[in-house]
Every structure is written in structure tokens, then in C-alpha cells.
Amino acid sequence: MTPQKTAQTEEETEAKVNDDSTESKDGEVPVLRMREALRDAMAEEMRRDEDVFVMGEDVGVFQGAFKVTEGLLDEFGEKRVRDTPISENSIVGTGVGAAMAGLRPIVELMTVNFSLLAFDQIINHAAAIPYMFNGHVRVPMVIRMPGGGGHQLGPTHSHSFEALFLQIPGLLVACPSTPADGKALLKAAIRDENPVIFIEHESLYGIKGEVPEGERVQRFGEAAIRREGTDVTIVGVLKMAHVAEKAAEILEAEHGISAEVIDPRTLRPLDLDTILESVRKTNRAVVVEEGWPHGGVGANLSTLITEQAFDYLDAPIQRVTGADVPMPYSKRLEQAAIPHEENVVEAVLATTEGAFGNRKDRS
Amino acid sequence: MVEIPDRETCLDLLSRMSLIRRFEEEAGRQYQRAKAGGFLHLAIGEEATIVGTTSAMRDDDYLIGTYRTHGHALARGTSADAVMAEIFGREGGTSGGRGGSMHIFDLERRFMGGYGIVGGNLPLAAGLALASQYRDEDTVTVCMFGDGATNTGNFGETMNMAALWGLPVVFLVENNLYGMGTAIDRHSAVTDLSRKAEGYGIAGERIDGMDVLAVRERVAAHIDIARNEGRPTLVEAFTYRYRGHSAADPEVYREKEEVEEWREKDPLVTFAARCEDEGVLTPEDVEKIKAEADETVKAAVEFADASPEPSLESLYDELYVVSETMGWYAVDERSPEPHRGEYGEDAPALAKELAESGAAHAEDEQEEQSRPGVRS
Questions:
Q1: Is A334 a catalytic residue?
Q2: Of B34, B46, B200, B302, which has the maximum CB count within 10 A?
């Protein structure tokens, strides 16, 4: 199979996959919180397909540790909204087995840190099985998990593991930053035939945004340009897409710098084309993530940009990352460990001034 | 003692056990000749546990195992050709040479895989059983694993979840007394493994894994509980492997006398003798079964030898289903361009170069036959 993007397939997929039914009857686009948008995605897919079910710790009676599964138990009952024991590896593994038998499980892990207990099932099984059994069986499942800092949950509940999952062949990795994308990407993830790691951000569950009603399914591998600009490209992942936008506003107001902000939306597949196109225009790039610096999303992306757009770069690529420590509890220290807009502004100034090493090294 | 079944059943049981025995002996020989790489785990001695179990299963029941599962696939009816070719890493293998000896798979016969991670298959079994329950089907999942797996977190997690949800699964420990080279009384605080069921509120039973008829009768009873009462159970089949853990095992951890003692209980010899004693089979029947197994295995080696190596172009095949929702997938983002729609024949040049140099190295290695520690 060769999924070349021909004009014809483009049209077809546009019609089916990216069908924006943007307005409700009275012409208003509903505004939802991220957690509601994610819940709606699951509910709609569960109504559409009997094989879709949700399981995880406290997803039913408790309605989700972050209330993402609110109302699902009432609508779908215990068969399809299953509270599990605290057994992460077996929760994921049970999902893998059910998926191999043709069901479409959505597994919720309470935080990304708990996913570490399930790495065997995620990597040795979910990711490997389709390949090691030569495609005779598939693992169509979604593993949802919230991560990220900001709520003083300390060193075992608030890390950012996008880079860990990004590295694993066989997985798809989604990291939505807006309610509209949250819903549309989750619907795509549920319908996809591959195992999908769906990373949510604890601090984004409450944010509000317009979420078009109806069948919007966001295809994976398509970045969103959040803000157009000409002087520098800022790539921001998850909550850092918002931080990058704030930084862009400051850059424009205080420094007269026009920044283009890109939210990759999925890291596997990665829409490298959109990023490279932007870098070829701006000649500068900054990558912002909440995860650790070594082997991180930014490390990967800056390598890809360097390999493929080196001649277009006017300055070294800058990375803004979380601090290279386990997440501390103290509010003061926690905030110091998470990138903020001023850090992004500094990084951009470093690229625009053509200087490097003049920025406080966050790593 | 379990009553002897009819002639047809006895022929079938003995044929399948003989095929496994002969297949494993030959696989070991081919491994010595460097036809197979990696690890090779043989089930010689454990045939009665395997065949007794599969003979109690329906065709639409699921079977899932660990990494000593050539025999499990054969017992389910997978062709010896495909299993041998998988061990050889060839295109004609059950997984096209992607899985190898530890990862045999046959969806058609609902053999849902061998798995290289001890305990890793237990939650998968729960998931298969959950799917049966979810769809209101009366299929049962039989999950086989070694004594060592009963010490893993997955064992506790999965037994609890299966019991809690009333999943139709039979957990079957193939207790061959050693977790690799560590004897059971050195690896498990409770050595009567069937008792581990108690903590999960389910039934556990220890059975004689060297007696194919006993295994068949008791596993049938447990399958019945799973199918008709929707309860999981734990069966501990007492068995023994005559060969080392893998072909790389010098067997310093057990006495020759112990092996000899167990050899007297050889499941093939004892079953054949009983069939003859009770007049169900003749010595000629037994010889014929052995000759047929010989032929099948000889043909399997020829098939595997003739089966082509996987093509270099297939390196990335089956990694993903490239679908509408997925959009596209760049096989290897290190390529200069383009980044979209690269797949199969359009794989980027760099990936191709890597594959080609890899193939050259694979040939070098075969010539050298230099796999440290695995010659025994």
C-alpha cells in the first residue's frame, strides 16, 4: 500500500475525515472545556460503535480522577465503562488482548507516571504485536493519560513523557492543546487501527474553547499553525503551544518580532513538512516542551530541522524545556521547573540576535 | 486412572505428541547447524500437558502461551512447515520471520501467540476472554505459562481482574520445576502453585502433566467451568522438560539422576505402552505414527530451507495500518524529502542503504557462525 497524497484521495479524506460541521442550529459554535470535549468524543464514538468501551481506574462510579469520563457510566453502563483494580500493566494488557479479538478499548491511565507500570504491555506488546506477528493481528486501542506540571502533584504525578512514547515504533502519539483538537483527535484515535498514546495535560482540562458540533475527525500528522509570523518559528507541544502563543504576543508588542507558532498536535506521525516550510520562511526555530531536555521532543525536532533545513537557518535552533529534575512539589520550585513565556521570549531573542549561550540554560 | 478413550482419539493424541517430540528434536538439531538464531526453547517432555490441553479445547477457543510454544501451535494444527520456517526466520514462517521461535502465531487456529516476556501473556488472555464475555460468545481462553510466571506482577493483577469480572479463562501453569535455571523451591515461597488461586477466590488444581489423558480430562472440566459458569480457574500441570531451558543451557542446576527419573515417566512412552496394553493400538500403529512424524518434520525442514529470506523492502511492512485517520506516515524522517507518503517501494534512500548494509552484515555473521554461548 502506498498512501501517496493524490488529489483524489485528498478530496475523499477531506470530505470524510475533516468534515467541519462548525455551527449548531442557532449559528453559535458551542464552547466546551477540554474535559467535556474529550468526554463527548468518547460518548459519540461509543454511540457509533458497540465495540468501543472505556476502562481504567475510577473511570466509572468516581467519573474519572480528572472527571473526563463524567456521565459515561450513566449512559453506557458497567459493561462499557469499566472500573478496574489498580493494576496498570494488566489494564493495558487486557485492553491489548481485547483489541486483538476485535474490540476497540479506550484505556485511561490516571497519570502518565502510572504508564511506567504498564511499559511492558505498551512497548513489548501493544506496539510490537502487529509487527512481530506480521500484520496477522492488529491492536486498535487508545491509551489516554494526563501529564504535565502545575498542580503541585510532585515527582510521581506530573511528568511529561511525550519523548518516551515518541521513540517507540508501532505507536502513534497525540498531544492535543485545544478542546476542539482534543475531541477531533480522540475520535480519530478511537477509529484508527493502530495503538495510540493519547497524552492530555492536567492543566488544560479546564480550558475553554469552541468545539464544532458533529463529525469532526482530525487526521493525525497535520500540524496547526496557531499564529502566522515571518521572523521565527516556535513549535510548542501540549500546554507549551499556549505558552508559545503568549510569548509571540510579547515578542510582537515589546520587540517587534513576528513569530509563527506551530502546534504539531501529533508527534507520531509528525507533520515535519509544515514545520520545515515555516523554518524555510523564518530561518529561525525554537522548540518548547515541558519534558526533560535530554533526548526530548526538542532534541529530536531540532535534529530533524538541522538535517533537513540547515541551509535555511540563520541561527542555532533553541530549545526551551522543563528543568532536568524530577518535578518538585514546592509551588515555587515547580514553577521554576516549567517553561514560561519569558523563557520562550529569551530563546527567541537568542536566535534573532544571532547569539547563543547568552540565555540562562534551563537544562 | 482415566479410562482410555477410543482408538481414533488415541491415535490423534499420540500423533500430535509424536509430532511435537520429533519436531523439537529436529529444531534443536537445526539450531546446532545454525539454521536458527537467537534462543530456542524446546518442550521435549511437556508434550502431554500441551496435547492434553488442546484436545479438550474447541476450535473457536483461544490459546495463548509464552515462548516455549512450537508445540502449542502444532497441537492446534498449525503446519510444521510454517513453524519451522518461522524458526529459520523465513518468509514462509507463521510471522514471515518477524517473530522467530519465541513468537509463533496462528490467528486462523486461534493460537494467539507465543510471547517472550514471562507473564506478559496473562493480561492478553484476560483481554481475549473479556472480548468473548463482551460479545456474549461462549468461547474460552486457555492461557499457558511456566512456573516462573506465577511470581510476576501480571499473575497477581490478572488473576484478580479475571476473578473479579468472571472472565472465561483457564490459567494453566506448565510447572516444569524450574524458572530458567532456578529451582521452584528457590523461586517461589509456595511451591504448590495451585494454592496461589486461593488468594483470588478461585479454584486451583494440581494435575499430572505427564499423563495426556489426565490432562485432557481435568482441563476439559476446567474449560467447562469457564464456559458454563463464567469463572476462571488455575490448573497446575506437573511436568518436566528433558532439555535445557534453551539451547544455550549447560544445565548446571540439576542432577542427571533427576532427569533420568523423569525420563521414566516419558509421556509418549507411557501413553503408547498403555494404548498397547489395553489393546487400543498395536505396536505397528505406534511405529507408523513415529514414521509419519518423521516425514512431516523432514518435509518441514525442506520447506523452511527453501522458503526465501524476507525481502529488504519488507523491513517496515506491517508496522502500521496506514489509514484515513492516520493520514500518512514517514517511514524514516531522516530522509531528505519528501516526508509524506513514503512507504514500501518509496522508502527513502537512507533507510534502504541501512537495510542493505544490514543484510551484508547478516551474511557475514552466518559465515562466521559466531554466536557466543549458544553452542552446546
A1: no
A2: B46
**HSE value, Cβ hemisphere, 13 Å, CA-based, for B63:** 30
Cell for A336?
521554576
Distance from CA of A255 to the nearest CA of B (A): 34
- B62, B339, B346 member nearest A272 (Cβ): B339
Quick one: which of B19, B119, B123, B121 has its CA closest to B73? B19
What span, in angstroms and rounded, lies between the C-alpha atoms of B2 and B63? Answer: 24
Place of cell 506488546: A125
Cell numbers at residue A188, please?
480519530
List helix spans (H) across chain B. Answer: 7-32, 47-54, 70-76, 80-87, 121-134, 153-165, 184-187, 212-224, 256-263, 267-277, 283-306, 349-368
- Grade residue A194 by pLDDT with cuts at 50, 70 and 90: very high
A272 vs B contacts (CB less than 8 Å): 330, 333, 339
CA-to-CA separations, A288 to A35, A36, A261, A353, B225, in angstroms, rounded: 24, 26, 10, 19, 56
C-beta atoms of B154 and A93 within 8 A: yes
Please write the tens of the pLDDT for every residue from B125-177.
999 999 999 999 999 999 999 999 999 999 999 999 999 999 999 999 999 99
User: Of A45, A88, A200, A290, which is the active-site residue?
Assistant: A88
Give the separation between CA A285 and CA A319, rounded to whole angstroms: 9
Question: Would the CB atoms of A90 and B122 count as touching at under 8 Å?
Answer: yes
Distance from CA of B125 to the nearest CA of A (A): 6
Task: Decide if B265 touches A, using CB distance below 8 A.
Answer: no
Interface test with B, best of A55, A81, A133, A219 (most B CBs within 10 A): A133
pLDDT tens digits, one per residue of A35-92 = 999 999 999 999 999 999 999 999 999 999 999 999 999 999 999 999 999 999 999 9
Mutation to test the A interface, candidates B108, B136, B323, most A Cβ within 10 Å: B323
Q: What is the pTM of this model?
A: 0.91
Contact A221 B327 (CB under 8 A): yes
Q: Count A/B contacts: CB-CB distance under 8 Å.
A: 197
> Does A194 contact B321 at a Cβ distance shorter than 8 Å?
yes
Query: pLDDT band at residue A307, thresholds of 50, 70 and 90?
Result: confident
- The per-residue pLDDT for range B227-260, each reduced to its tens digit, is 999 999 999 999 999 888 887 788 888 888 988 9
CA-CA distance, A305 to A280, in Å (whole number)?
A: 10
B38 at the A interface (CB within 8 A)? no
> Poorest-confidence range of A115-119, B255-259, B261-265, B363-367?
B363-367
User: B293-305, pLDDT tens digit by residue?
Assistant: 999 999 999 999 9
